[in-house]
Amino acid sequence: MSTHGLQVQGISKRYGDTVALADMSFEVHPGELFGFVGSNGAGKTTTMRIALGVLEADEGQVLLGGRPVDLDVRRRIGYMPEERGLYPKMKVGAQLAYIAQLHGLSRAEAADAVHRWTTRLDIAHRVDDTVSALSLGNQQRVQLAAALVHDPEVLVLDEPFSGLDPVAVDVMSHVLVEKCEAGVPVIFSSHQLELVERLCHRVGIVRAGHMQAVGTVDELRDRGTTQLEVHAPGAAPGWADGLPGVRTVGVRDGRTVLELLPGADDQAVLAAALRTGPVHSFAVRQSSLTELFREVVAA
Q1: For the chain, where are the alpha helices, taking DSSP H only?
Q2: Alpha carbons 217 and 228: distance in angstroms, whole number
Q3: Per-residue pLDDT tens digits for 179-233
Q4: According to a count of CB atoms within 10 Å of the terminal CB, is the N or C end of the chain lower?
C-alpha cells in the first residue's frame, strides 16, 4: 500500500464573477482520516473534483506523493461523488467489474475484487440486480464499492454517509477506518458533524471558498473561547455578572454556562461561585465540533 499523502496547494477557481475557491490549501497525510466540512456552496465539492482531476484549477495544484494529478495518478484515486455516478440500468456486479478494469485490473482480478467488496459491504446478494432496483442506502454501498474496487492509494468521498441507516453508517465507518489503518489518506465531506468528530484525525472548515480553520478538534477548541459549567444551586441569577472577562451564556440543566475571554481567571470565578454557597460542580465545558463550526463560519 502506498504511503503517499495528498497535497492541495493554493488552488483557486472562478466561474465568471463568482469565486468558488480562493487559495485553498491543506494536506491529508498517509493513514489519516480528514473531515472536510462547510455549508452548502462553500467549495467542498469543487475542491474534490479538482483533486480528482475532473475540474481544472485556475491557480494552484494538487499532488499525490509529490506528483501532479494526471491520468495515471487519477487511476490510483478512489472517488465517491455526492450525486449517484452509476449506470442505473446496469447490473451491480457487471458495473463494478467494468470500473475495476477501467482502473487497470485484469478480468480475474476485477472478479475477485467485486466479490471481496460486495461481501464486505453486505451487497453480494444484489450483484445481479440493477442499481435502479436498489434502495438509496444500498446504492450508496455500491457507490463506495466502486470507489474501493481497484484498491486505491487515496480515497476522496463526497457525503458518503448521506441517506444511510445506522447499520450502514457503522459498516462504512469501519471500512474507512480499515483503509486508513492500511496507510491510505482518506478525505470525506459530511454535514453529520458528530460523525466527523468521532472518526476524523483532523478537520478542515471551509467558508466561501476559503479554508477558515484546520486541525484536530482539540486544536480547533484552543482557537475558540473557553466555557465553564458551574453548578451552584444557591446562586442567584447574574451571580457572575461583573467578573472581568466573563460572560454568562445561559443556564443548561441547572448549571450556569460561562464564557471566559482570554486572560480571564477561572479561580476568581470559582471564588465568586463559592460565595453564593455550595458548588456541586465546576468544570471546563468541551465544545462540540458543531459549536466550533458555528463559531468559525460566523467569525
Answers
A1: 44-52, 71-74, 92-102, 107-120, 136-148, 166-181, 193-199, 217-223, 266-274, 289-298
A2: 18
A3: 999 999 999 999 999 999 999 999 999 999 999 999 998 888 777 678 899 999 9
A4: C
Q: What does the alpha-carbon distance between residue 272 and residue 14 come to, in Å, rounded to a whole number?
A: 54
Collect all residues with Cβ–Cβ distance below 8 Å to 29 and sequence separation of at least 6.
5, 185
Question: In 3D, which of 221, 263, 268, 228 has the Cα closest to residue 245?
Answer: 263
Pairing of strands 281-285, 226-231: antiparallel
For 228, the grid coordinates are: 465553564
- For cell 459498516, what's the residue? 171
Do residues 176 and 185 lie in contact, with contact meaning Cβ atoms separated by under 8 Å? Answer: no
C-alpha to C-alpha distances, 293 to 38, 59, 192, 219, nearest whole angstrom: 8, 27, 12, 13
**Taking the domain 6-220, which CATH number applies?**
3.40.50.300
The span from the CA of 148 to the CA of 175, in Å, is 10
pTM of the model: 0.82
What does CATH list as the number for 224-298?
A: 3.30.70
Pairing of strands 18-28, 6-15: antiparallel
Q: How far apart are CA 190 and CA 140, in angstroms?
A: 14
Residue 3 has pLDDT above 80, yes or no: no
Report the first-to-last Cα separation within the chain, whole angstroms.
41
* Pairing of the two strands 154-158 and 77-80: parallel
CA 95, 98, 102, 106 torsion: positive or negative? positive
Q: Is the pLDDT of residue 2 over 70?
A: no
Q: What is the DSSP string of 171-222?
A: HHHHHHHHHHHTT--EEEE-S-HHHHHHH-SEEEEEETTEEEEEE-HHHHHH
